[in-house]
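Hi V.,

You were right to ask for the full record rather than a summary. Here it is.
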Amino acid sequence: MINSERYHRQMILPGMGIEGQQKLSNAKVLVIGAGGLGCPVLQYLAAAGTGKLGIVDDDLVSLSNLHRQVLYSVADIGKSKATSAASKLEALNPDIEIIPYPFRLTNQNALDTISGYDIVVDGSDNFGTRYMVNDACVILGKPLVYGAISKFEGQMTVFNMPGKDGQSGVNYRDLFPVPPGEMEVPNCEDAGVLGVLPGIIGASMANEVLKIIIGFGVVSTGKLLTFNALTNSTYEFILGDHSDDYIVPGNVDAFMQANYDWNCALPGAGEIAGKDFFKMLQNPGVMVIDVRNRGELPIVSRFKHVNIPLDELADRATEFTHAETLIFFCKSGQRSRQAAGLINEKFRDGKLIYSLRGGLNGLDQQL
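Predicted structure:
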């Protein structure tokens, strides 16, 4: 039963009515990432009455999230983003179904997770996940609403949207056939982001989802929309046809065997899992370096380490000369991979250089 009082202001819009609201009630949308982009997407889709919302995120809420991830509060610090977001959205609209998936999306679980939804929204913050989600949506024939942000700029489009001829539209690999190197594009933790920017881009992504579901307006497929918060400049880039410079895994077996960590490869360095990490700490020649910014949570006291933020590493490389093995860590493993690659370029004398796989977030899961 549609609650006409709750949705009255949108139901009286031209092209909406009870029919459009019913389409929303029947819709199933999966949002990947409950961070800066995911928060506004989830809030607006829940408020609009989207019948089923899935939330995929294995991260925990931290104090540094709160300036832009406005779905959370100080009371949520240390809690799962997926389950915290679900709780907040249930309070906002108890008439819809909300399913949290507090795990990391991989090619081993992506197809099963995505297959139960009509539309996928990608609010992730790393290239491996973006390529993997794109490929899964191509295989399953799902429209993919994509957004990305950094510093003062954001971008948004809709991939894999079927045209009137039934053919799928361009996908993420048409825009980015070759993934950039990890050192080429910094993430928000390293480059920073204006707090209102993900709200602007995320709201635009939610708008695309509503247009797809209800069937009105012009869906932003085949074009990339960009926004600059400093100048309020917006640009629209027309995307070309499918590119022949890439290969999407052509079937489920190929997808399951694909490696989506290829863009994080470290020349001359590697990753180390939790069990091996603690074993290696027994070696007196090992030096462990926390490359997070000073004051970032959680505080680490379970093993000896030094804190040298990523942007200071190049200037302080001489501090590593006495160590035989260097192990870098951060919250998620992304900045530590950058650090390992950077320091490996400095030392070519046989040092062993590692990044802690999955960072602090994944440490206990690997034991």
